[in-house]
Task: inverse folding
């Protein structure tokens, strides 16, 4: 995944989770070799918190790379029963990039 784990961990470290403390970040490896990342940003009500994969997909479009296919995806998150980032990320990834597997990495809590 050529650096995607490192990018996902960096995004998780930069995530904003003052209420739950559950940090998460996603890195998408694109066919061109570029990597786009997204990080979790929560609100006080946890709704409408921004999911890391949704932020990465938005970054891909904002970078003008929407035609650059997703070749791989890594989710780095702190382990917690409070918030499950993997299940919704898998669902969204199945729509955005069918057949691409979501790789999971443990992030260190802040």
Result:
């Amino acid at each position: 995944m050529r650096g995607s784990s490192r990018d996902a961990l960096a995004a998780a470290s930069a995530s904003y989770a003052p209420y739950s403390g559950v940090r998460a970040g996603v890195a998408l490896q694109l066919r061109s070799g570029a990597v786009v990342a997204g990080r979790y940003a929560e609100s006080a009500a946890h709704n409408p918190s921004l999911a890391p994969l949704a932020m990465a997909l938005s970054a891909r479009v904002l970078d003008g790379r929407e035609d650059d296919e997703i070749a791989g995806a890594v989710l780095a998150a702190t382990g917690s029963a409070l918030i499950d980032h993997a299940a919704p990320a898998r669902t969204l990834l199945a729509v955005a990039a069918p057949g691409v597997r979501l790789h999971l990495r443990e992030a260190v809590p802040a």
User: Anything to note?
Assistant: Strands lie at 24-30, 35-39, 70-77, 102-106. Helices lie at 4-13, 52-62, 86-96. DSSP finds three helices and four strands in the chain.
